[in-house]
Design goal:
Blueprint lengths: L1 H24 L3 E6 L5 H5 L1 H12 L2 E7 L6 E3 L15 H11 L5 E6 L7 H15 L5 E18 L7 E17 L4 H14 L6 E2 L2 E4 L6 E10 L8 E6 L5 E9 L5 E8 L5 E14 L14 E6 L2 E4 L5 E9 L9 H8 L4 E14 L4 E3 L1 H7 E2 L11 H4 L2 E2 L1 H6 L7 E15 L8 H19 L2 E6 L5 E6 L4 E5 L4 E6 L4 E4 L5 E2 L3 E2 L4 E6 L4 E9 L2 H13 L10 H6 L1
Parallel strand pairs: 1-2, 1-4, 11-21, 19-20
Antiparallel strand pairs: 2-3, 4-6, 5-6, 5-7, 5-8, 9-12, 10-11, 12-16, 13-15, 13-17, 13-18, 14-16, 17-21, 22-23, 22-30, 24-25, 25-26, 26-28, 27-29, 29-30
Helix pairs in contact: 4-5
InterPro entries: vWFA_dom_sf
Protein name: VWA domain-containing protein
Organism: Candidatus Thiomargarita nelsonii
């Protein structure tokens, strides 16, 4: 009983040791094992082989084996128990089968010796595998391959001589593919890649990580050399590099008057972060300025340009490439700006600070992207396929044509990415004649004040019907007036230069827009009746004359009898 309890505790600790990393990292994946007979020699060196499989399958959600066509199946037991005896490796068919049973965002880890890269029916399946990974509409967003070496004791086969084999004991190469279905984030894939690297860190196992997709390129060793100023074109600006708290450098242009020109250049050393050499790729530089809130009416990017020399270069992880970047601006013309841009510059405090990036980008086709010569020299066997059956360490511990294998998984179309980015800070000074625009702004504001004051001032109008009976009313801007009786009532809304007339149903208007002096014509289609009112503006002078008459007569003259009244009496 005590022995069983201790065994249970040991088993619990072992499981915790293997599963704890997956809980911490938060990664999970499926795993597929090549069950072909050419893999059997790894099992002969059981200790390392079992340790590799157990470390990888400890975080696996589902486990599969594959080999001959239609031999793709689920595995519930530990992978060390899989019988390695299939006669071929149909890798493409296995990936298609996994794709049908998986969901978006899932990952598969494939362990294989790539023994069927050429010749036979299985080579067609290999091409299906590479097409699935490289085609433009590929369902896979992230791909990495880990060539590794493990102890081996068994048969090795020549690909072009049928089933001929020889016995070999030593280290032999395997390939471990890590493939993620879209959508999958770069951050999660980096985490997964590091996790797999940690799982491969075992005794008697050497490995190399090659990320194929998404293609990574950006790595800079630092800025070198002094800034070269053009003394003729750069007259008033101070240019230099400053260091940020994190140690990175940024380009600072101080005191640049926008009506002057600047031109300078600097050197930058770039080195590819990927495992690829970008041969004779096209390079170009671009200024990207951040859109500040106070710059919404003005586009500064059009005034600044950048160029990179040479325009074509080879960017390699094996050496540093020196590039020269030139930076210049076009003279700022205040007269070419629109009203709002002029207004923006007129109310500033003589300067403006703008932030952005100066980016160096590359564009490369598939044939321009080659695996690093250092990696090829260490991990790729470039000889004839017939030599693969030779029991020599220099042949067996490398992956056959690794460069071709990896390049077959690259995207079919070209790759365009950022190679390097320099933070830029521009401290700009405005031309002094921007201040000359202020009087025009003041005049515009005063004119607007009087115009809107005129619109909002109340005015007196009158409506005269067909009998000549007037009805006075007073309206200001956007105010309404109701006129009529229970049988017909309409409204007038003052819009500054005209009135908007609205009537209830079933009445109809000849025109809903009228101005002073015009007639408001309303008809009733049910009774064929028509009503007319004339809209008249009552002048201020008439009001003032009436006030004078009232004052001079003491309010009596307005009520005196006229001659016509006497005759009537």
């Amino acid at each position: 009983m005590m022995i069983q309890l201790r065994f249970t505790r040991c088993k619990l600790l072992v499981n915790l040791f293997f599963f704890l990393p997956s809980l911490v990292w938060g990664v999970d994946y499926d795993i597929m094992l090549d069950a072909s007979g050419s893999m059997r020699g790894f099992r002969a060196e059981r200790q390392t082989w079992e340790r590799l499989l157990s470390r990888l399958e400890s975080s696996a959600q589902r486990k599969y084996q594959f080999g001959e066509k239609s031999h793709f199946r689920r595995v519930d037991a530990p992978l060390i128990n899989v019988r390695l005896r299939d006669d071929a490796t149909y890798l493409g068919d296995a990936l298609k089968d996994w794709l049908e049973g998986s969901e978006r965002g899932e990952v598969v880890v494939i362990i294989t010796d790539n023994v069927a890269d050429i010749g036979g029916d299985s080579s067609e399946s290999q091409q299906v595998f590479y097409d699935l990974l490289s085609k433009q509409d590929s369902p896979f967003s992230h791909i990495a391959i880990f060539p590794i070496t493990l102890p081996f004791d068994g048969k090795v086969y020549s690909l072009d001589t049928g089933n001929a084999f020889k016995f070999y004991k030593g280290t032999r190469a395997l390939s471990i593919y890590v493939i993620a279905r879209a959508p999958y984030s770069d951050e999660d894939f980096d985490k997964l890649r590091l996790f797999i690297q940690e799982r491969l860190d075992i005794k008697d196992c050497q490995s190399q990580c090659i990320q194929v997709k998404p293609f990574e390129s950006e790595k800079v060793s630092g800025l070198v050399g002094d800034i070269e100023i053009n003394p003729i074109l750069t007259r008033d600006a101070n240019v230099g590099f400053e260091q940020q708290p994190d140690g990175t450098k940024y380009l600072l242009v101080k005191g640049l008057s926008l009506d002057n020109e600047i031109k300078f250049s600097f050197n930058v050393d770039v080195q590819s972060r990927s495992s690829f050499e970008l041969q004779n790729v096209e390079l170009h530089a671009q200024i990207q300025l951040f859109k500040e809130d106070n710059l919404k009416h003005f586009e500064l990017t059009d005034h600044f340009t950048a160029e990179v020399t040479p325009r074509r270069a080879t960017i390699s992880p094996d050496k540093i490439q020196d590039l020269s970047v030139s930076f210049q601006n076009e003279p700022f013309s205040f007269g070419d700006l629109g009203f709002f841009e002029k207004l923006f510059f007129s109310v500033q405090n003589n300067s403006l600070t703008v932030h952005g990036n100066l980016e160096i980008k590359f564009k490369a086709n598939r044939e321009n992207m080659k695996l690093s010569q250092v990696i090829i020299g260490s991990w790729s066997y470039e000889g004839d396929a017939s030599e693969l059956g030779q029991p020599r360490v220099e042949v067996q511990q490398k992956v056959y044509k690794l460069g071709v294998l990896v390049e077959s998984m690259l995207p079919e179309t070209y790759i365009a990415q950022k190679l390097y980015s320099v933070p830029v800070t521009l401290e700009l000074r405005y031309p002094p004649y921007a201040l000359y625009f202020i009087p025009f702004v003041i005049f515009f504001l005063v004119l607007s004040f009087f115009f809107f004051g005129f619109l909002f001032q109340s005015k007196t109008y009158s409506l005269e019907d067909d009998m000549g009976h007037p009805q006075e009313f007073c309206l200001g801007f956007w105010q309404s007036y109701q006129h009529g009786n229970e049988s017909l009532r309409f409204s007038l809304t003052y819009w500054g230069l005209f009135f908007w007339v609205s009537v209830p149903r079933p009445f109809r208007l000849h025109s809903p827009l009228v101005s002073a002096g015009q007639y408001i014509r309303i008809s009733n289609p049910e009774t064929d009746e028509e009503y007319n009112w004339q809209l008249l503006r009552k002048e201020v002078e008439d009001d003032e004359e009436d006030d004078k008459v009232w004052s001079s007569s003491g309010g009596k003259k307005l009520f005196s009898k006229s001659k016509s009244d006497e005759d009537w009496l």
